[in-house]
Specification:
308 residues; alpha/beta; seven-stranded mixed β-sheet; 41% helix
């Protein structure tokens, strides 16, 4: 299957990075290399490190970036950006881009198990290593599964779904996406099934986030990668659901916060100064032209931060 991935808000991301031809940049989520290639095209004596933990993406990005001597592909999760830079002796970078969306290749390739529209193995691993979605469904207790569905998928019927999964696996282990989709249909009331898109969407999102530790990876990157930016460097992040966006918004706000003294203090005694400034106070969203080309851009939100 051909590796395809629409590069969401490509012009806005490039503008947000404010690329210098001699700068050093990181694409933390290479995918199909769309954003990476656009960065590499703008570099002369600069350098691009393009990360991805999916071996399929790494292979494809390596092929697509081969014509660009400025580009280097790294098989690693973006949470390890500081370690990789240290290993390479790079002291600072001028921009970091994260596109947190699942690639079209991952969604549309049945064997990866990300989609609820086809019956496929319950995998969902971006790295193709470690725990699968089937492992969670077959081994986690009811409370643990319900917490995943509720916190990562904002699923209203998290507990009934988890309870039914626990009962069903006693008869037959979960191995394929179709089993889970049928169970969700049977559990969610018919009136609720007609609301908010496919009834399995929230549970599948929650399982994908849990399998890949997505929020933990993002939190770690937000905590550590900012310090890798040179003064004036940009942190550009595309999110695709509210949990990610909320985390990015709060962390960016923290970097922009200055004095934390109580308002009744006549002068500042804490000495804290903002470490960054927001380039856009409200998230940038895809325009009508892009939405007509790619409906998956609908939930995307772009936030940009500049280090002071």
């Amino acid at each position: 299957m051909e590796f395809s991935h629409y590069s969401v808000m490509l012009p806005q991301c490039m503008e947000g990075l404010n690329i210098k031809p001699d700068g050093i940049y990181i694409d933390g989520t290479a995918g199909g290399a769309g954003h990476s290639r656009a960065i590499a095209e703008r570099l002369t004596t600069g350098h691009l490190l393009s990360f991805d933990r999916d071996p399929d993406a790494v292979a494809e990005a390596t092929k697509r970036l081969a014509p660009y001597p400025a580009a280097e592909v790294i098989h690693s999760e973006f949470a390890r950006i500081p370690e990789v830079l240290a290993e390479k002796g790079i002291e600072g970078v001028d921009g970091i881009l994260l596109d947190l969306g699942v690639s079209s290749y991952q969604l549309d390739n049945p064997e990866r198990g990300f989609a609820y529209s086809v019956d496929a193995p319950l995998d969902m691993r971006m790295s193709r290593e470690g725990m699968t979605a089937a492992d969670i469904l077959n081994t986690y207790d009811v409370d643990a599964m319900a917490r995943i569905f509720r916190e990562f998928g904002e699923e209203r019927f998290a507990y009934p779904i988890a309870k039914r999964i626990a009962a069903q696996r006693e008869k037959e282990p979960f191995t394929h996406t179709g089993q889970l989709v049928d169970l969700i249909y049977a559990t969610i009331p018919s009136a609720a099934r007609r609301e908010g898109g496919h009834p399995a969407k929230r549970v599948f999102q929650a399982l994908r986030i849990a399998v890949n530790s997505e929020l933990d990876q993002l939190s770690q990157c937000l905590d550590t990668a900012f310090d890798c930016l040179n003064p004036g460097g940009r942190f550009v992040i595309l999110t695709f659901h509210s949990l990610e966006d909320r985390m990015v918004k709060q962390k960016f706000a923290g970097y922009c916060q200055g004095c934390t003294c109580p308002p009744e203090f006549p002068v500042c005694v804490c000495g804290k100064k903002p470490r960054a400034k927001l380039i856009n106070r409200k998230p940038i969203e895809a325009d009508a032209e892009e939405l007509a080309q790619n409906s998956r851009s609908k939930s995307a939100k772009l936030r940009i931060l500049e280090k002071l």
